Amino acid sequence: MNNTNIQILYQTLADQITVWGRELGFQQVGITDIDVSEHSAHLKQWLDKGYQGEMDWIQRHQPQRENPGLLVTNALRVISARMDYLPENTQQIKTLKQPNKAYISRYALGRDYHKLIRKRLAQLGKKIEAFCEQSIEIEADLGHTLNQRPFVDSAPVLEKALGEKAGLGWIGKHTILLNENAGSWFFLGELVTNLPLPLSIPDNDTLDLTDTNIEAISVKFTALQEPSSSTYTPAKPSPLSPPLLPPPQATKPINKCGDCIACLKVCPTDAFIGPYQLDARRCISYLTIELKGSIPIEFREPMGNRVFGCDDCQLICPWNKWAKPTQEKDFSPRHSLDNTELTRLFLWSEEEYLKYTEGSAIRRLGFERWLRNLAIGLGNADSTSENIAALESKKDYPSAMVQEHIEWALNRLLNPKKRIRKVKNLYK
Predict the structure, then answer these.
(1) Burial class of residue 213 (count of CB atoms within 10 Å of its CB; 0-12, 13-18, 19+)
(2) I need a surface site. Which of 120, 247, 271, 286 has the fewest CB within 10 A?
């Protein structure tokens, strides 16, 4: 098979991957190479400054982050995919205005996304594998075994950097990937492969998963999907066929944050040192989820009622006005976690905590830190008899850390005149 035909076949596979991605629930799919050297220097500087806090696993696996080829033998490409998770009809800003209610980050209101997205990526991998098995030409061109592996946030992968290179968006000043048509309320996942697929070209390639584009790609795919044989010759390129490889050099999407610094200003704990620079040690998401010990006193009041994560820099981002509600039912809020009193959650027994957080990202926190975070929320809530009684009911909980935070909270509720309101609130 000549070089031109194998190039057409790889391009056809790349286009078909976008179709399969849509069928599997992804809103966008892009393909990039494994070179993340542009971001490696930034990562090293960030680590050298100690901004990672207790997240020592970031530094421990730094070589793999800088080279995805260490994760998959002969890796050449990363298929990056995004899936929207914005729950429909959530009243998150309203919850932030109600100090007696618990604020839980939007991504954690439904089922844990890790397993769901990893399963979908594995299914995508199976489809790619089946395509390759039907093509003697691809097997011959590879000259070795097809190697693929899905990753979803739990492995050492620079997912935002790869998502940007694949054309899914740009990294905003709040260090989160932004898409001009979808904002930032989406999860990312990657399928690393040793297939030499053509790269996606942002705004000028096959990233649009509209029904019209899918129909066009499907027509072309059907024309080329013939039984494999040693004498097989692909159909001649039709008007629907893409340009032959090599494609134009892929370039990342244009950063469209402009002069806006709303995300930097709104942060309750001033965790942003500057644009694109986050000191995780000050970030409420880090403090409530990653930090194992006591939360520094200076951050407790600014935390307000945020008991698991923080979305402020996303809630205020102008690009999120384009975000669309998720179509995945598993991402919908469970157990009314988007509208629940702090006292109800604090009074859960450990058995209830395990029951109601089953299959949720909240489960990884553990009951002890769950109580720690809720105690801070109650300490920032109204000085009501209900809130005070809830805290006093767990004063003897067998954890010095929990007892410390309960004591702090009770001292505030029993001495409300001594409280100094330092909570930053731009949502009034």
Answers:
(1) middle
(2) 247
Element (H, E) at 219: helix 211-224
What is the distance between the alpha carbons of residues 318 and 232, in angstroms, rounded to a whole number?
52
Secondary structure of residue 207 in the 3-state scheme:
coil
Q: What is the pLDDT of residue 231?
A: 30
Report the distance separating Cα 61 and Cα 74, nearest Å.
19
- Separation CA 205–CA 173 (nearest Å): 26
What is the reported pLDDT for 297?
A: 97
Task: Give the residue carrying structure tokens 């731009």.
Answer: 426
Tokens 């995300």 label which residue?
263
Alpha helices, DSSP H, located in 24-112: 37-48, 56-60, 62-66, 92-96
Q: What is the rounded distance in angstroms from the CA atom of residue 148 to the CA atom of residue 137?
A: 19
Residue 191 gets the label, from left (phi > 0), alpha (psi -120 to 50) or beta, of: beta
Q: 227-237: per-residue pLDDT in tens?
A: 333 332 333 33
The number of C-alpha atoms within 13 Å of 35 and in the hemisphere containing its C-beta is 6
Between 60-69, 195-204, 317-326, the lowest mean confidence (pLDDT) is in 195-204
In terms of Cβ atoms closer than 10 Å to its own Cβ (0-12, 13-18, 19+), residue 130 is exposed
Find out whether 104 and 309 touch, Cβ atoms under 8 Å. yes
Report residue 299 as tokens.
């951050």
Count CB neighbours of 403 within 10 A: 17
End-to-end CA distance of the chain: 66
Residue positions annotated with a catalytic role: 153
Give the separation between CA 81 and CA 170, rounded to whole angstroms. Answer: 14
* Percent of the chain scoring above 70 in pLDDT: 85
Q: Name the 3-class secondary structure at 26.
A: coil
Q: DSSP of 160-182, one letter per residue?
A: HHHHHHTTS-EE-TTSSEEBTTT
